[in-house]
């Protein structure tokens, strides 16, 4: 089950981890919380995929746009949950979408653009996290 990051400390720890993937608008940070020491590991209870979202106002001025993007991230996070290793992740919007091109805050075109970019972001991250199968020598 996908759990949401809630505390400032959880976000700080994940953002201090590695960048797993990036697109023109998004970046995905990841942290293997099993490698943390006990006080920090306690922030991430259980073996689950943790997901946090950062959509700053400076890149998405309208609340309806921010909420639409967040919903898309969490929905795709649930879709890719099985291909992501049990760890903590933060998806961060790092650049705004052009308001001249996407006039409506919840236009179908904006939703499709966000979904396409997030799909490529999660696909790239999942492929990087996929364990490499050992070579069998005969």
Topology:
Layout: E1 2-4, H1 8-15, E2 18-22, E3 26-31, H2 38-41, E4 49-54, H3 63-79, E5 88-93, H4 108-129
Parallel strand pairs: 1-4, 4-5
Antiparallel strand pairs: 2-3, 3-5
Helix pairs in contact: 3-4
For the largest beta sheet, what order do the strands appear in spatially?
A: 1-4-5-3-2
Tally of domains: 1
Number of strands: 5
Give the CATH level 1 class: Alpha Beta
CATH level-3 fold name: Ribosomal Protein S5, domain 2
H/E element string?
A: EHEEHEHEH
Main structural class: alpha/beta
Number of helices: 4
Low-confidence stretches: none
Q: Average pLDDT, to the nearest integer?
A: 87
- Main sheet summary: 5 strands, mixed
């Amino acid at each position: 089950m996908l759990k949401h990051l809630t505390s400032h400390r959880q976000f700080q720890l994940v953002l201090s981890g590695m960048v797993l993937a990036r697109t023109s608008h998004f970046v995905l940070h990841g942290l293997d919380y099993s490698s943390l020491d006990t006080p920090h590991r306690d922030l991430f209870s259980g073996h689950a995929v943790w997901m946090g979202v950062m959509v700053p106002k400076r890149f998405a001025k309208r609340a309806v746009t921010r909420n639409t993007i967040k919903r898309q991230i969490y929905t795709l996070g649930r879709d890719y949950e099985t291909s992501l290793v049990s760890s903590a992740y933060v998806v961060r919007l790092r650049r705004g979408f052009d308001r001249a091109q996407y006039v409506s805050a919840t236009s179908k075109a904006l939703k499709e653009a966000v979904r396409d970019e997030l799909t490529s972001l999660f696909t790239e991250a999942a492929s990087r996290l996929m364990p490499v199968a050992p070579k069998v020598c005969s």
